[in-house]
Design a protein that fits this description.
The structure holds two protein chains of two kinds.
Chain A (H helix, E strand, L loop, with lengths): L2 E4 L4 E4 L4 E3 L1 E4 L5 E7 L5 E7 L5 E4 L2 E4 L9 E3 L8 E8 L7 E3 L3 E6 L1
Parallel strand pairs in A: 2-12
Antiparallel strand pairs in A: 1-4, 3-9, 5-6, 5-10, 7-8, 8-9, 10-11, 10-12
Chain B lengths: L3 E4 L2 E4 L5 E7 L5 E7 L5 E7 L6 E2 L10 E5 L2 E6 L8 E8 L9 E3 L3 E5 L1
Parallel strand pairs in B: 2-11
Antiparallel strand pairs in B: 1-3, 3-8, 4-5, 4-9, 5-6, 7-8, 9-10, 9-11
Classes of the chains: A mainly beta, B mainly beta.
Chain lengths: 113, 117
């Protein structure tokens, strides 16, 4: 079945550092790919998405590119802020499976001032 | 997007009891789901809540333990039955098919944090 693998965490960075969180997937066909963010004590928020190969999703300074050749969807941000501290989840869905999401393990990001 | 509310936001329950969690959306949606997030872990899909029919459960989850209702296109409930400490988790509902949104965009409620003693 489909699966998503994220880089092991937690990740601790200083403010204004460059962020990369790796995400790779295993799936048949052409899934849609997502990054969700969960701030402390809150539910999940959709951060960005990409629905086909070479699409780039972007939001709030975060970017991720759908790479079918490497089955990856790595999350990047050029300069993180303390307010970016959260748990980040990579996920995929297939239209053939009713839009159900398959999540990665989540990566805890802490940004220090 | 959609405004999704869940009640209660948190609860502490005794083992052997049951808790019903409500999920309300401010607009009609196509699909509603229920997820469980165990402490420090990722999300696992419990079931798809089908309007007017029985929910579709994922492997490892059964109706007797997690009965689900969806009487209309904006509301669903999840009951956690005969609770044990292993049921302590955050339970989240999500929706797909929000008017004006993409078919595959899924939005989440704020979650219900359940502790079972």
């Amino acid at each position: 079945g489909d699966s998503v693998t994220q880089m092991e965490g937690p990740v601790t960075l200083s403010e204004e550092a460059f962020l990369t969180i790796n995400c790779t997937y295993t799936a048949t066909g052409y899934p849609s790919l997502f990054w969700y963010v969960q701030y402390p004590g809150e539910g999940l928020q959709l951060l960005l998405k990409a629905t086909k190969a070479d699409d780039k999703g972007s939001n709030k300074g975060f970017e991720a590119t759908y790479r079918k050749e490497t089955t990856s969807f790595h999350l990047e941000k050029g300069s993180v802020q303390v307010s970016d501290s959260a748990v980040y989840f990579c996920a995929l869905s297939q239209r053939t499976s009713g839009s159900r999401l398959t999540f990665g393990e989540g990566t805890q990001l802490t940004v220090n001032p | 997007s959609a405004v999704i509310s869940q009640k209660p936001s948190r609860d502490i329950c005794q083992r052997g009891t049951s808790l019903t969690i409500q999920c309300q959306v401010d607009s009609q949606v196509t699909m509603m789901f229920w997820y469980r997030q165990q402490p420090g872990q990722s999300l696992t899909l419990i079931a798809t809540a089908n309007q007017g029919s029985e929910a579709t459960y994922e492997s490892g989850f059964v109706i007797d333990k997690f009965p689900i209702s969806r009487p209309n296109l904006t509301f669903s409930t999840l009951t956690v039955s005969n609770m044990s400490p292993e049921d302590s988790s955050i339970y989240l509902c999500s929706v797909v098919g929000v008017s004006g949104g993409s078919y595959n965009e899924q939005f989440f409620g704020p979650g219900t944090r359940l502790t079972v003693l």
